[in-house]
Amino acid sequence: DDGADGYDIAALGSKAGKLPWKALGESAADNKKRYVGIKVKLPNKLVIDAPTEEEWLRAAVKYGRAVVHTVAMKKHIESVMKAKPWELEMSVDETDSPTTVFEHYYVANELKRLGVCPVSLAPRFIGRFEKGVDYIGDLKKLETAIKYHHGISQLCGPYKLSLHSGSDKFSVYPIAAKVCDNLVHVKTAGTSYLEAVRAIAKIKPALYKKIVAFAHERYETDMKTYHVSADPKKAPTADSLKKGKLAKSLDQFDLRQMLHVTFGSVLTTKVDGAFAFYDEFINALKDKEDVHYETLAKHIKKHVKPFAARLKKKNKKRK
């Protein structure tokens, strides 16, 4: 419930009373006793302050149904997979407000109580984890927050702390690697598409310019389902792109985000029954596979580097 942070105490109480407590396995009163007024010591010696009744209500109203849904999904996956191995990641990152330390603990502890053991969990961190660009916010405050979130992941798991919209967050990776000791999941699907587009800029400049023009047309519509702040007025247009600098234009903040969030439209739009871009896009990458892979590998290597450095440092200490 994304509105939970704005409800007054009366509204929170009313909404909490309507939560599916049967599915949550205990009464509201028992759940309240489990959390309100109780400090939590984390394995990394940090302490979660004892939550007030209002903080408990807000966490329950905000995430209670998400917990129930995750339990149902876990049971469904179990029934389908049977003896086959499987993993479950729980994500609460696509919310308007950050996941507080207590809210993360509430979600993780409720999942544990109800028999769900996620391989990773993605909270909504403080600051802005926008698509395709580096972190926007105070890195010192983020590091403090990650220390608490990691402590919770070890107490209630252990599970990996997941960085959703993790693509290109190069200033965050060294912090996450150090604090979490590499127990991190970095989600990078979107950046792989952007680097495929960069390869297109090298292979078929005319197609790249068409995609840029299309991104300008589609951005205002496609951006509505993402947390982004690109300004189309600041982004290069297809006509303004200079020969020899097309691939470099992928590094411009606004254009990079615009190309990121319009990927679905680029790959699915049809004109008179035929794909507007998809076939030409895919065939170009196949024809010049070496260019595609070289471009992608160079970029992904930048994501891996801080975690590889952490592993190297650990191995050196062991020796």
| Biggest pleated-sheet summary | 4 strands, parallel
Radius of gyration: 22 Å
End-to-end C-alpha gap: 50 Å
Class based on secondary structure composition and strand pairing: alpha/beta
Number of strands: 8
Could you state the order of secondary-structure elements as H and E?
A: HHHEEHEHEHEHEHHHHEEHH
Mean pLDDT: 95
* Low-confidence blocks of residues: none
Oligomer kind: single chain
Biggest sheet, strands in spatial order?
Answer: 3-4-5-6
Q: Please report the number of helical segments.
A: 13
- β-strand percent reads 5-15%
Q: Which range best describes the helical content: under 10%, 10-25%, 25-40%, 40-55%, 55-70% or over 70%?
A: 55-70%
Shape descriptor reads globular
Structure overview:
By secondary structure, the protein is an alpha/beta fold. The longest helix has 30 residues. It is built from 13 helices and 8 strands.
Entry keywords:
319 residues; alpha/beta; four-stranded parallel β-sheet; two-stranded antiparallel sheet; 13 helices; 7% strand; globular
